[in-house]
Amino acid sequence: MTTDSSLLNSELELQQQEELYQQLLLQAMGKIQTENPDSKVIRPQPGMCVKTLSEPSKQKVFVNICQSNSVPLPPDLSREELVELLQSEDPSGYRIPMSLGEPHTEVDNSSQGCTAYDVVINQEFFQKCQKDPLFQQFVILVCLEGLENKYNLELSRDWKVLKNRKFLGSVIEQNIRTKSRPVIQELQPPDSTAVSAKRPEFTLLVEPSAGDPEYLIAEIKLPGVPSSRSLVLDVGQDRLVLTARPSLFHLDIFYPFLIDQENSVAQFNKSTEILTVTMPVVCASI
Description:
This protein is α+β, with helices and mostly antiparallel strands. It folds into two domains: 138 residues, no CATH class; 83 residues, Immunoglobulin-like (Sandwich).
């Protein structure tokens, strides 16, 4: 059997281009890390590759679930607690820290174009999920939901874990946050009474009111909430999710802007029982 030398040369050139690309990427990510001390660059390890489809286009999507000790370990959770969590009314109350990478175009085994996403979770938690099918299904579901929320996708729940492939494409460094924002600051002493669970009243304000918006301000009324310790706030690029425990309030809203998550600030006024979230606007949502 003979080998076409032109193919070998082509593969060598591609390998050299890939190495050069990785060097340039490392330099660029290093610059980002210097400019932003609240983040750092990590190179995750391959874990498992999940194949699914985007809806309604039925295009192939691959999710590379990677592992790194640089990503925080989620709270300890037993199998029994996981079963109770999945049967509860609000399973989203348990958060898995993860880094969601940008989409990249790849080619599958059939030489067809497809889209791949890299999701990085804690290495110890990943190993735990590998030992228990229930935990594995749970973490895959959370990863899919995270990608859907961040990139406005709809992914099929009929997924398949590839047996002989841990990663599709090339492992790319990710820039992850080392500080969690926004931090909820308490302003005044409490004056509250207990209320039943419901969707809180809220208003969205744009500043300035005329011209290009610079800030989106959410004011959320939370009567009966004793302190900011009862609140779990997640500010996304175009979505805000707030939970007041134990099951007092739950708010999940989208807004027509893309906002700067890193520089968003939240303050809970214990006297007025109002949570104010100030979010710098990057641009209007597409």
